UniProtKB/TrEMBL annotation:
It comes from Aquisphaera giovannonii. This is RNA polymerase sigma factor. InterPro entries: HTH_Sigma70_ECF-like (IPR053812), RNA_pol_sigma-70-like (IPR039425), RNA_pol_sigma-70_dom (IPR014284), RNA_pol_sigma_r2 (IPR013325), RNA_pol_sigma_r3/r4-like (IPR013324), WH-like_DNA-bd_sf (IPR036388). Residues 94-126 are annotated as: Disordered. One of its GO terms (biological process) is DNA-templated transcription initiation.
Length: 195
């Protein structure tokens, strides 16, 4: 894994929207997320309907939106890995509930015998990088000017107490305000599975 100073720098760069940092984070953590998802896909009998990459991309999209806001207080690579695998478990559980709620019979759906693996390139395509950047821009666009100011101050590395001192109000109240705003935008964009 990554040592502590390098990890802190990586998270700071991810919060700032640095595409190279996002790429490094994906390269480092994606295999572990996909392993966790593949294991659970077999248990949930959803392996014929979903690919580990589907869940992994959904997890990373949600993570980057929330990380850009400074919503996560991550102190170690292990803590980040735990967060990402928990997000993957939750997204997979939501998908499983959705499949069962719609009374789908996963035994009747068949995969194309590995055809998807033969078509898909495992590296991020330029369109994936652009889509991630566009997603972050859309998140920022949907925030109010006050919410964007909170986001920018947080992305610049300001602690909540310093933000509260600068803008007035309580640190926890401002943190909750930004968190609720990001939850709202994530729902609007369909990034969260729960209503």
């Amino acid at each position: 894994m990554i040592d502590a100073p390098a990890f802190e720098e990586l998270i700071r760069r991810v919060r700032a929207g640095d595409p190279a940092a996002a790429e490094e984070l994906v390269r480092t953590y994606e295999p572990a997320i996909r392993r966790a998802v593949r294991f659970r896909l077999a248990d949930a009998r959803l392996g014929t309907l979903l690919d580990s990459m589907d869940i992994c991309q959904s997890v990373l999209a949600s993570f980057f939106v929330r990380a850009a806001s400074g919503q996560y207080e991550l102190e170690s690579p292990e803590q980040l890995l735990g967060l990402l695998t928990a997000m993957a478990r939750n997204k997979l559980a939501s998908e499983s509930r959705r499949q069962h709620a719609q009374r789908r019979d996963t035994r009747r759906v068949s995969a194309a015998d590995g055809a998807a693996e033969m078509v898909a390139d495992p590296d991020d395509s330029p369109s994936t990088v652009v889509a991630a950047r566009d997603l972050l821009q859309e998140v920022r666009r949907r925030l109010s000017p006050d919410e964007r100011r909170l986001l920018e101050m947080r992305n610049q590395g300001s602690e909540w107490t310093a933000i509260a001192a600068s803008l007035g109000g309580g640190a926890e109240a401002l943190r909750r305000r930004l968190s609720r705003a990001l939850d709202r935008v994530a729902r609007e964009l369909g990034l969260d599975d729960e209503p």
